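Students often ask why we bother predicting the structure of a whole assembly rather than each chain alone. The short answer is interfaces. A chain on its own may look different once its partners are present, and contacts between molecules only exist in the joint model. In this exercise we take two input lines together and write out one structure for the complete complex. Read the inputs first and try to guess which parts will touch.
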Amino acid sequence: MKFGGTSMAGTERIRRVANIVRAQAARGDEVAVVVSAMAGETDRLVTFCREANPLYDPAEYDVVVASGEQVTSGLLALTLQAMGCKARSWLGWQVPIQTDDTHASARIENIDAPALIAAMQGGQIAVIPGFQGVSPHGRVTTLGRGGSDTSAVAVAAALKADRCDIYTDVDGVYTTDPRIVAKARKLRHVTYEEMLELASVGSKVLQTRSVSLAMKEKVRVQVLSSFVDEDAPGADSLPGTMIVSDEEVEGLDMERQLITGIAADKNEAKITLTRVADRPGAVASIFGPLAAASINVDMIIQNIAKDKGETDVTFTVPKADLLRTQALLEQRKEAIGYFRLISDDKVAKISVVGVGMRSHAGVAATMFKALADRGINVQAISTSEIKISVLIDEDETELAVRVLHSSYGLDAADAA
Amino acid sequence: MKFGGTSMAGTERIRRVANIVRAQAARGDEVAVVVSAMAGETDRLVTFCREANPLYDPAEYDVVVASGEQVTSGLLALTLQAMGCKARSWLGWQVPIQTDDTHASARIENIDAPALIAAMQGGQIAVIPGFQGVSPHGRVTTLGRGGSDTSAVAVAAALKADRCDIYTDVDGVYTTDPRIVAKARKLRHVTYEEMLELASVGSKVLQTRSVSLAMKEKVRVQVLSSFVDEDAPGADSLPGTMIVSDEEVEGLDMERQLITGIAADKNEAKITLTRVADRPGAVASIFGPLAAASINVDMIIQNIAKDKGETDVTFTVPKADLLRTQALLEQRKEAIGYFRLISDDKVAKISVVGVGMRSHAGVAATMFKALADRGINVQAISTSEIKISVLIDEDETELAVRVLHSSYGLDAADAA
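Now the answer. The structure tokens for the assembled complex follow.
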């Protein structure tokens, strides 16, 4: 079981979490719990580090920021004990959760925890701080922001857990954002790959890295809410969303939808370079420097070369990197050889995602027709095996999501 | 070097501390620094523990509260690095500071730190969180409140340090409280035993336990202020107070004062039981139950038995334990056999302390005469080899301290 920072923010919320954990243990399950720091605490600690040293040593940064999860793991163990449960905390170096020594964004390399497993078999609930591990040199490491989801999946894999339940402030994964489409449905199941596509295009339920790890380690992950009142009638029959393999989901869902979900992402900006020389190496001269600056280019469209041997190149970058990208490209204007740089940060990327589209033609055609029928102009397109994304005007985001949600038959029945 | 919570409270103050540490290292010294948590942080964490579980498991309490020093040790290392110093933090389990497993009030058993020593010899400043260690079972322990002074002395002993400099919010140990006596003088030297007596009677400069350890391990401790502006002219010639052995202080101070200091303590309350049966076991029936309840009885006076075979017994307990003491004694009124219980919490204990009194008669006579001359009534007396304490009316505290400070010739010269 994993609980995030909002669920751990203060004594009363930790008590709610302890109630959920106790109920699980009372069913006879062996339970390990991975916890985040209290909401806001990691930011507070990061601020201290930046004030101390703007170019901070990540090894010392890790010592400071790992303390947030240390506190909540001790407090949850204390709260469980107050309820009569056997419980103890296991810090990263005690488990041990062995990582590489890439401080501040370490990767988990191994979790070999015979003492922890023995304690769990003896009926003791294990409480483990997320986000932290120990390096080959015996120093504290952290996994990077949001790393607690990854910790939970890694611990679940190491313990060969039946399930990794990730409690968040939403009660599952929906066909699309319920704030945009009232008829959005909670998905009972979603595959790892679908979850990856939905996560990377803006459904920020789980950290992408944790989903990749779950896919690799075949950990069944359930997303559910820690804010559902477990005493409410029928609460037990309100499970979250299970994230599972292709095979499992095919066995479960006889009448699986073609499309699993629709995601909208307003965090990209569009850049067009006009009249780029249509010669070998021109594209490399644009994207090489951006890659070197760790700017993640997403959609790329190169228009067909015009008769003058020139072409327009359009691509998207994260909005946060737009100014940096413009500056870099303007520095290199002569080397690249373009006429004008046009940028637009009023765009949105709309994606339809589903493993079903692998075996079905016509998914893209449905998308383009539905958007065209409502007069929505598509500025760029990118596709993967299980996803089609289009770039549109930001103002049309909600309209596009609603239209597509209906077009693919995802709307919940009125009576549901 | 050890810095307390007030010195570590926030980015700016940590920068001051780092400046002091850097200046020390710049003199060519190998430096280890022991730090407390930011002022207020340990209280915040203790409150969380109490809210989570009023009868908290001390092992989990330790996990939570040890985080405060973890944060400041990382931040000081970062700040030193920002100033161009080589520095790293060493957590209790990394040094390792091995303790017993008495969680929440552990005792240091061993510090064997070859890696830390090698790093220091390589020019790296070691930053060590105070208050924390690791148990034989590999769990986090803490030494009890105020334990950072003890950590500092233990680390100094393990490193065979030339000196353990304890930076506080006062600039040394004075002949008495300068807020009471304007002519109080800062002592250049004081012996371990004198410091113990001064500490236990209210001069709360150092934790008593740390002084005992320094005496046992023969660590030279210097008390000095972290709030002196080190850029001020003559700041370097304003050292603090050195706490050293009898032998060393005798070699240093040719014209040593008979009395080193005067301490006042308003934290005791007086209880008198009247007409206690003067029979064997009567006193045991009073003090046995108090000892069992961990109530620390200090001064005890038993008046000479009157002709009726009855006696009055007077003693002092910490003010904080007065109500508990009264309740215990009233429950046992019949078993003890006394007439009335009279309590008085408006008392003060005044102590004159000095190793010099060992070899000089007349110290007590001077005290009683000086107090009698000013009409100050002595309610109880207790003595040790290097201390005489009297209990007086609380309202007369300041007067008594001033009178005694003059009588023993401790007043600074006017021109000083």
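Check your guess against this: The longest strand of chain A covers residues 268-277.
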